[in-house]
Amino acid sequence: MGLDVVTLSRLQFALTIMFHYLFPPLAIGLGALLVFMEGAFHLTGDKDWEHLARFWTKIFAINFALGVASGIVMEFQFGTNWSSYARFVGDVFGSALAAEGIFAFFLESAFLAVLVFGWDRVSPRMHLLSTVLVALGSAFSAVWIVVANSWQQTPAGYALVSHDGVLRAEITDFWAMIFNPSSVQRLVHTLLGAYLVGGALVASVSAYHVLKGRHAALMRKSLGLAVLFAVAAALALPLSGDLQARIVARTQPAKLAAFEGLYRTTARAPLSLAGLPDDARQELRFAVAVPGLLSLLVHHRLDAPVIGLDAFKPEDRPPVLPSFLLYHAMVGAGMALAALFVLAAWRLHQGRLHEDRLLLWALVWSVAPAIAAGEMGWCAAEVGRQPWIVYGLLRTSQAASRAVPAAHILVSLALFALVYALLGALWLRILDEKIRRGPEEA
Amino acid sequence: MDLRVLWFMLLGVLLTGYAVLDGFDLGVGILHLGARDDRERRIFLDSIGPLWDGNEVWLVTFGGALFAAFPEAYATAFSAFYLAFILLLFALILRAASIEFRSKRDSAAWRAFWDAAFFCASLVAALLFGVAVGDSMLGIPIAADHEFTGTFLGLLRPYALLVGALNVSLFTLHGSLYLQLKTEGGLQQRISRWSWRALGAFLALYLVTTVVTLARMPQALANFGRMPWLWGVVAASVLALASIPYSLYLRRPGWAFLSSAATIACLIALFGAALYPNLIVSSLNPAWSLTTASASSSEKTLGIMAVIAALGMPLVLSYTAVIYWVFRGKVKLGRLSY
User: Fold this and answer.
1) Shortest CB distance from A69 goes to which of B54, B96, B297?
2) A171 touches chain B (CB under 8 A)
């Protein structure tokens, strides 16, 4: 694998999407929590909730601005780096992107202005309404993006049409395209992941202040809210993951086989908890597995065969090692977070969460694995789709721009790496300063 | 109406929305270093604070709509202008970062750095938009397979740079008129003098650009014979332009701002009239140009997109109206300020 146009464009896409994906889950998750905080203020009249909402709005705004700027990069790259892909899918994929702009981004960005700058300009009701609309807008944008990506995973509602001998996909059934086999479950999983990130962030910051004994009354309230919110998301995630895995088994069996390190089609297929896929030996080494559980989960029958990688030609198989590791790391992080938040919710119920310093410190750090799990889940989904950019229709190797020389992409890749590293570091520092200072400066 | 014509026009509307709205906040960025002290700079930032990211959404939606309606044109243009687009992206990222980060620390060096970054990024973005328009007018080397065969430096031609400079002067003017609406007292008077200077620069560049365009690209008027109503757009642009100095003279910055918005809209309409039915002109062979017919999505998709636009655009316009109403009036620095 030399540094050709396809490889460089893939590296650049991976870098820029992973940087971008720091922000949308924060916006979706935090947006929902802001609705709860401001809603609580309206219902109870308790000024603490307003105070909290104001504090978190400022954090939200910084994330949002970087999300907008890094998001434009993503939209442009389909044309700059993946123009052969754009020509092939524009008829289908473009409409989802355009709909995202029209239905989600305008809503989000307009009412964000009221959210951040409008406290003294509009009535409290109008402010609450704006908060609700921003939370909805950020979820809407997830809808369109996940639909577009799901179409790449499980294309539906299209026909391949030839124009002067060049094939492209065109919409034949809009609703079948929108509700393609994987879009609903993937959307649910993505949103739940974002809610977990939002809950973990608020829990983390609140736990930190409770530990430091600052703004204690205020922070105990947000800690309780965040723990309940996060535990709900963390418990729903494996259920949604299970539903999704069954769709993957049906629609993208090679991906599921790579996730599980299942080299051979097997009845009573085991669910691997850990291991190291070895392509040379075509087996999962050091496997820790529960016999039959994969068959049971996927087909609800212990003896049902699960398709392995041997059912696919070598050139149609995804890279097993990264798919396996990313998928298992996501599941592991998700399970650990579920356990952590269940424990925290139990302690909260007992009224002893605020004394359990060890648990509070674990909550402080919980936001890191929550964000990492979302990143790894997306990486697994995208790597597991390889070698296809549109599953079964277009190979990634055929999708890059033809007019762009590799040297230009090398330059842009290096610049993105540099600028994003600096920006990411500054973002963390400024966020950290704001968070440590806490709500009083609001 | 033919859906391809409809989408050609809707793209024009989205581009106009972008240029009119983000145009003024880019202009504020270009004028940013003219503010004398920290207080004035915070006023400048606050004047666009609630609005700039919403304004940028017009560009995102323009890109999405171009992708959906004319995927061939999207793919060809974005890969042809690769380095230019990457540069534009960095400018937009840097702008977002400077607006958000600048006032988060009390250090003078920190603020000076982001002030400079904000200025440079705004200037580069405004210049690149103009260059892109100039190159579109001239045509770029596109082969029969719709692929670009030129180089990055080949895009920086004198005419393209002239249109780039024209756009910088136009956005500077537009931004200064916006700032007049948001400021008061001595600051407003100083900005008023900037408006006059920017207007002078714009008029001079506009005159040169018009002469060069007509001399080098007589085909720009090809559609005027078939569609004589286009002369009405020319007349409207002259009136809109003339109304800027008149409104400034009467000290009616609101009218002046609307006039410059109308000027921008007319210029984009004329740009569309010069291009149509081409989206990207091939300088190698006119038969290889990407037209509304050869670059478009299927009839069905254009129809679906038209429904999406019909449902969505009224919402978009109403949010925009609400936000500009909520944030009307002069900037007052307060605890929510940058």
Assistant:
1) B96
2) yes
